[in-house]
Design a protein that fits this description.
mainly alpha; globular; about 5% strand; two-stranded antiparallel sheet; 2 strands
């Protein structure tokens, strides 16, 4: 079950999107996240969907792989929709029962908020699916390098984010193995209500935390044995260089950003 979660995983297909500069992909992802909040009508949200679909096609990442990144947040998306639909006031009543009143304006706002969360998850998932953890770390460090003048730990922050992304699939795999081991001993994680299933997961957390701390300690020892001392004086194996395809990607997203701001 947990192996179907794609958060933090890298899907290598050597496509044109994969070969884009990591720094540019981080900046374009941030621009896409900002662009989501400028979309105010159906055409804007349709354009965002077409953009995500086009990126998925050009990156050769299957749509079902992207859908897996959304699946863990499905309950949050449903809760967001219900919350906005019930508590936002409007004038055009669609449904009314007892103290519950749903309006057309509330439904529109609920759909917009749900789509925003959905696009945010899909956009950031495409970044991690098309960028290796090492390239993502180097790209983020290069982007934050000017902040070093203010004693900002750019390398350390990029390294921590990269390690966090790298170990999400590892911890999920460890959790899946622990669940199967406990299920073979009679534990039940699938039946019962939401509260019952949440209580059944509690015994899973202790071995998972122990495993996570052990992996963190092993990683710290491995880095120390290799004389890791932070980013000072370190060099990168890969030298980033902007190419023509990076310029084309930047221009295309800039044009879409303009269209969304003006007419979205």
């Amino acid at each position: 079950m947990l192996k179907r979660v794609m958060i933090g995983q890298y899907y290598n297909t050597q496509s044109a999107i994969h070969r884009l500069d990591a720094r540019l992909k981080v900046l374009l992802t941030i621009a896409f996240m900002v662009m989501i909040f400028f979309a105010t009508n159906a055409w804007g949200y349709l354009a965002l969907f077409v953009f995500i679909f086009a990126v998925a096609v050009f990156s050769n990442v299957p749509i079902n792989i992207i859908a897996r990144s959304v699946r863990p947040l499905m309950y949050i998306l449903i809760f967001t929709f219900i919350l906005n639909a019930l508590f936002i006031q409007g004038e055009t009543e669609v449904f009314s029962w007892w103290a519950i009143r749903v309006t057309k304006e509330a439904l529109i706002q609920a759909v917009m908020m749900t789509l925003r969360l959905l696009y945010l998850v899909m956009g950031t998932s495409l970044l991690t699916l098309t960028t290796s953890p090492i390239e993502l770390t180097d790209g983020m460090e290069r982007l934050m390098r000017p902040l070093k003048a203010f004693r900002f730990p750019a390398h350390e922050l990029a390294m921590m984010m990269s390690i966090a992304l790298r170990f999400i699939p590892t911890l999920l795999d460890e959790a899946d193995k622990t669940m199967k081991a406990q299920a073979s001993r009679g534990a039940d994680f699938e039946t019962g209500g939401l509260i019952t299933r949440a209580k059944n997961i509690v015994p899973l957390l202790i071995p998972l935390f122990v495993s996570a701390f052990k992996r963190a300690d092993d990683l710290a020892l491995a880095m120390e044995s290799r004389c890791y001392r932070g980013g000072k004086g370190r060099t990168s194996m890969k030298v980033f260089k902007l190419e023509a395809r990076d310029g084309i990607a930047f221009v295309l997203l800039a044009m879409m950003f303009y269209c969304i701001v003006m007419w979205g």
